[in-house]
Specification:
This protein is mainly alpha-helical. It contains eight helices and six strands. The strands form two sheets. A three-stranded antiparallel β-sheet has the order 1-3-2. Strands 4-6-5 form a three-stranded antiparallel β-sheet. α2 crosses α3 and α7 packs across α8. It is globular and about 60 Å long. The termini are far apart. 21% of the residues are buried.
Length: 179
């Protein structure tokens, strides 16, 4: 089957594979299949394949950590997830807690892969995690729910403070919705 063949090829590769490499691979052994569909299915839980950067997929083995560092990172992630179990959080919040000497090995994507692989918290997409059975809400959805609950106009700074109580936020995530 094409998905299993693709997964095996990624796992056996010495380095993570870019989406274009995966498309070429799928087109080679299954030219009549939609390669984008196969790449889309790589995101599913249980494949053992994770995005390790924008447009690059690999397995946990592609993240070069020794056992001691691996367990140190997992403990940091578990503690953070436990302390933040009631709200949505992005792996960029955890990366700040990782020892500096690991900063060249780990980034938000790789940290997300490690957390998913070890079933730490509920993965809700785009390197975001949240409470069990929760789905990722957009910043806009959170802002609307806060405004509806508040039932009155709010200053932007107050609204942003309330949004940050529910999920991590960087300023670049605030966009005006076009008319």
């Amino acid at each position: 089957p094409p998905l299993q063949t693709t997964i095996l090829a990624i796992k056996e590769s010495p380095v993570p594979l870019a989406s274009t490499q995966i498309f070429n691979l799928v087109n080679k052994f299954a030219p009549n299949l939609n390669a984008k569909g196969i790449v889309g299915r790589l995101h599913e839980e249980g494949t053992g394949i994770y995005p390790l950067s924008h447009g690059t997929f690999g397995s946990i083995d592609h993240i070069k950590l020794n056992d001691k560092d691996y367990h140190k990172v997992i403990i940091i992630c578990e503690k953070f997830a436990l302390d933040n179990s009631e709200k949505q959080f992005h792996t960029r919040s955890i990366i700040k807690l990782i020892p500096k000497y690991l900063s060249e090995t780990l980034d938000e994507f790789k940290l997300s892969a490690l957390m998913r692989h070890n079933n730490i918290s509920n993965y809700i997409g785009r390197n975001m995690f949240g409470a069990k059975d929760e789905t990722r809400r957009t910043v806009r959805e959170i802002a609307i729910s806060i405004l509806e609950k508040n039932n009155e106009l709010m200053f932007q700074t107050d609204l942003l403070t309330e949004i940050r109580k529910e999920r991590e936020l960087i300023h670049e995530q605030i966009f005006e919705k076009p008319p």
